[in-house]
Amino acid sequence: MPLNPIAYFSLEFGIDDSLPIFAGGLGILAGDMLLEANQQQKSFIGLGLFYQTEENNLQAVTNQSGKPLLIPVPLGKKVIQVKVWKKLVGQTPLYLLDTQVRGNSIDDYNICNRLYVGDKEHRFLQEIVAGIGGTKLLAALKISPQYYHLNEPHCALAIIQALIQTRASNPQLSFRQVFRQTKNKILFTNHTMIMNDHYAVSKELAAIYLAPYAQALKITTGKLLQLGRGKNPRVFSLNQLALSGSIRINAVSRLHSRVAKKIWPGFDFIPITNGVFLNRWLGQPLAEVWPPTQIKPCSKEKFRQAHQQQKRNMLQMVKQQTGIKMEEKILTVAWARRLTNYKRPGAILKDIGRLGLILNNSDRPIQLLMAGKVHPNDRQGKQLVRVLTELSRKPKFRQRFQFLPDYNISVAQKLVGGADVWLNTPKRGREACGTSGMKACLNGVLQMTIRDGWTDSVEWSKLGWTLDSDRVAEDIYRFLEGSVAKMYYQTDPGGLSPEWLSRMVYSSALIRKNYSAARMLNQYEKELYL
Q: What is its EC number (predicted)?
């Protein structure tokens, strides 16, 4: 066990489908981070929550007596007990905290019953368990992290427990000195462009649950709550706590860094663009002809053949899920990610009549695949799922459009590996980074994208197509009717489109060079883990 690792806190981790403790890109990124740290044999551990699943490939963490290790976590006037599970990601440990302990009340027993479900109070209790409990776990295991790295504000309460531990070790210090000393060990990765209230609870609610921590720090509850005071004085903001309590903060793309600086002008945001773990997201056929460790590309013909195999694999998956056999030779466009309003999954549906004509064009037909998950409390998202499902059943669309509701890692791997075009439609200024396009690009899938997040830093003129955020639907239709379909179907006597194939190879090379998790982790070491 590393004694001075990077302690990487995240409310979700996407390692594989057998352990579904993730909701979207944030968890997948955290999973890629652990996979890359393991590959590079870095001193690194993950800390998160165990949401109730049927996963049985976990090891219970025990104390010196061989009994389950229990971490006491104060919640206002009571103390709950939290047990701990351990999963090895290669040789990199991931610790998951679990409130289903005999003796906890039924409400406390179910704090970690599901990810991102419930009201703000339920979420806040999860955040206390993750941040406070995770930090106390490290102390119980006698692990002194080099840094506490907070992935999003959800884990910001780790700062408070770290303050308590600094105070206990240095009782002679003033609170200001304790805060300064603790801050030197806290790092924060911001993934959002949403103001502080999104990661906030009322001051009254925070005061109830955080009172024992103020007492441990020997300060008033009011003074403790000041650490989370942002522009709205009526709430306690975890985002503000993370910003003010971290020695260094990073954004996850260059554009995100500039936008975040405007939203929170008192802080500096180091731009460290996210990356993807190549071994997980590069399809096996392509990996065989152009391994992730090989700089020189394979021949274009080998690349084409490998991608075609991945496309066949993808279409076979679609048939298994929907019963519809789509055609390998038809240009296939994919949109797949979390179904949320700012990502605009419904943009391509703005004119259903025109879309139907595009998909069923007799000379240059197009197939459209959509996939995604919706938040359990998102009524608008659930309505969109119904619309997409109904559309996929209409005779005019059945062979040309399908929606895959059971979106998970294995489905994502097939889609990013086998599509021809990847569609990315967020409202500009809302996507901090976005990594689904990186995964597709790695596999030679051409991008049709809003310039937002990581895509704002790429010159797309010779790689893909950029959409105007203010007329996104019109641009999608125009490109599909025109240059996209024309380039794909403009083939030589051998059935190849030379320009399309060149763009595929260049796209894959771009991700390998600039947007891998290896580059991301190395940049963290140089600019954050100083």
A: 2.4.1.1
